Amino acid sequence: MTKKRFVDPFFPNRPVDDPNRFSGRETQVDEVIDSLFQTANDNPKHTIITGDRGMGKSSLLLQTKLLATGDNRLAEKLRIDLGLEAFNYIVAWHDANYDQSAEHIVFGLLRDLESSIKRFFNKFTLELDVYGLKVSGRDERERSIADLVNYFCEMLEKSYKSVTENKKNGIILFIDELDRVKPDSGIATFFKLCTEKLNREGMKKISFFCAGITGAVQKLEEDHGSIFRTFRDVPIPRLTIDETSRILISGFDKAEFTFDANVLNCVYDLAVGFPEPVHILGSEMLSVCEAENLTEKDFENAKIKVVTDVRRNKLRSLLQKAGYGKYQQILEAMAAFDGAYVPLDYISKYIGYDQNQFSTNISNLIDRDTITRVDKGVYTFVDPLLKEYIRNFGVLNIKKNDEDDEEGQIYMDV
Question: pTM here?
Answer without folding.
Answer: 0.81
